[in-house]
Amino acid sequence: MKSIGNIGLGSVAAGLALCAILAPLASAAELCGLEPTPSCGGDIREYSAAMRPSDEALAFDNLPGFTRSASHFDHAVVSVESRVWAGQRGWKKATTAHIVSPARGANFAMYLADMGEESSGEPAAAGVERFAMVLTGEASVRHGKKNIQLGPNSYAYFPPNSTDVLSSEDGAGLLIYERLYSAGGKPVFSHGEVEESPLLPTGPEVFKLRKLLPQTTDYDFNVHIMDFQPGEYLWVKEVHYNQHGLLLLEGKGIYRLGDKWYPVQAGDAIWMAPYVPQWYAALGSTPTRYVIYKDTTVDPLLG
Ligand SMILES: *[C@@H]1O[C@H](CO)[C@@H](O)[C@H](O)[C@H]1NC(C)=O
Predict the structure, then answer these.
(1) Where are the domains of the chain?
(2) N or C: which terminal CB in the chain sees fewer CB atoms within 10 Å?
(3) What is the mean pLDDT of residues 152-180?
(4) Ligand 1 atom having least distance to the Cα of 161
(5) Mean pLDDT of 35-43
(6) Is the peptide bond before 204 cis (omega within 30 degrees of 0)?
């Protein structure tokens, strides 16, 4: 090892000596190369892009390698360009992009399903409950003898071992939450429209809150819809055992996760592990709406 080290140092020394000899011999033109620069007598550069960046430059959209996505032990931010779409067992003529799963310690899965024409989603695996929210297009559920239409902004909950099939004739974009049911109760199929769900008291908070599933011990998670006017922010700086999977549906703001502060906008998804400090401020010029999974009612010690 010692002799290899000596050879390396020797080579560097020889290289430096050669440079010292050659440098004074090279003409200024050779050093400056073919493209003139200010220091080589070329035109004076100006930096208008640095003085007045365009909105496009501020968005960083087209800079290769740039992403706001981040992954840490207790949280992750997944922005649109980081979604990976793939075929998934049970989904026909549809692709899915998983954003949260037990692979990173979560007690649930959160994914988007891009359903094409004449597509379908088979029931979830045995013992798994599923919540589906329609983001775009139209889906339908065959529930017993009924055929239930689900338009944008509507949702359906399928209890564990449901045999109902989700389908779409003309295509639909869905947000899906799934969990291995762990409450020991009797959850039942339900569906509805977000705006039909009543607003719940939130004081001292100012945001508007809806919970899309019944608040009983039959359910081991709920799905909240939270609305903020521009400038509104969370009063509490929560740290809790519950886990979250969030999708920003509308608006922009800053999400604080642990010691990091993330600018976020519609389309961004967030995974929050237990006990990550969390806080949000809606700072865009338009209202924020997000949908968020929260596990509930299961004993934190035994769950
Ligand atoms: C779901 O079905 C499996 C058998 O396929 C059964 O073991 C399990 O208890 C059922 N789960 C629920 C919550 O009904």
Answers:
(1) 4-26+33-295
(2) N
(3) 97
(4) 1
(5) 63
(6) yes
Which of ligand 1's atoms lies nearest the C-alpha of 181?
A: 13
Task: Read off the pLDDT of each residue in 233-261 and give the average, rounded to a whole number.
Answer: 97
Determine the distance separating the centroid of ligand 1 and the alpha carbon of 125, expressed in angstroms: 10
> What is the pLDDT, as a whole number, of residue 35?
61
CB of residue 127 inside a 6 A radius of ligand 1 = yes
Nearest to 192 by CA among 171, 207, 214: 214
pLDDT of amino acid 175: 97
User: Does pTM surpass 0.90?
Assistant: no
Report the CATH number of the 4-26+33-295 domain.
2.60.120.10
CB distance 158 to ligand 1 below 6 Å: no
pLDDT in tens, 64-75: 888 999 999 999
**Closest residue (by CA) to atom 6 of ligand 1?**
127
CA of 183 to the centre of ligand 1 (A): 12
What is the CA(127)–ligand 1 centre distance, in A? 5
Instruction: Dump the DSSP string for 190-236.
Output: EEEEGGGSPPB--TT--SEEEE-S--STT-SEEEEEEEE-TT-B-S-
> Ligand 1 center to residue 190 CA distance, Å?
19
